[in-house]
Amino acid sequence: MPKILIVEDNEMNRDMLSRRLLKRGFAVETAVDGLDGIVQATREQPDLILMDLNLPEIDGWEATRALKTDSRTSHIPIVALTAHAMVGDRERALQGGCDDFATKPIDFASLIAIIQKFLPVNKVMDGK
Ligand code: MN
């Protein structure tokens, strides 16, 4: 079962994403800020990270940089969740080491498609 770490400070968004991914058969871990995200990613070794960019403590760009420069976590794909459809945010996310991004409000079907691109073949879900 693929494990996804959701790093999101907004409780409502975090819970909704978490519920939907669980329902879909993923294992889910959550972190409430960038610092927590780094700690959880290192400890839990998720298959993929969904990273909100606007986060307290350490923002999503900084947290991504930290994860991508640490050999314990650099292999984990990071999908940025950008709050606005702002081109600058996306570019910064990709330049900062994010592997892809999804724009809020999250379209769940598109998000699943993005997630599946990055999962190891033996962990790809059939979506049923
Ligand atoms: Mn946020």
Instruction: Going across the biggest sheet, name each strand in turn.
Output: 2-1-3-4-5
Q: Tell me the number of helical segments per DSSP (H or I, 4 or more residues long).
A: 5
**How many β-strands, per DSSP?**
5
Radius of gyration: 13 Å
State the major sheet: 5 strands, parallel
Distance between the termini: 14 Å
- Shape, please? globular
- Report the average pLDDT across residues: 91
Structural class: alpha/beta
Range of strand content: 15-25%
* SSE arrangement, N to C: EHEHEHEHEH
The helix content, as a percent range, equals 40-55%
| Poorly predicted tracts of residues | none
Bound molecules: manganese (II) ion
Question: What does the model show?
Answer:
By secondary structure, this protein is α/β, with parallel strands linked by helices. It contains five helices and five strands. It has helices at residues 11-23, 34-44, 60-68, 87-95, 108-118, and strands at 3-7, 27-31, 48-52, 78-82, 100-103. It has a five-stranded parallel β-sheet, with helices on both faces. Strand 3, helix 3 and strand 4 form a beta-alpha-beta unit. Helix 2 (34-44) runs parallel beside helix 3. The model has no long low-confidence stretch (mean pLDDT 91). The site of manganese (II) ion (MN) has 5 residues, from loops. Manganese (II) ion (MN) binds next to loops.
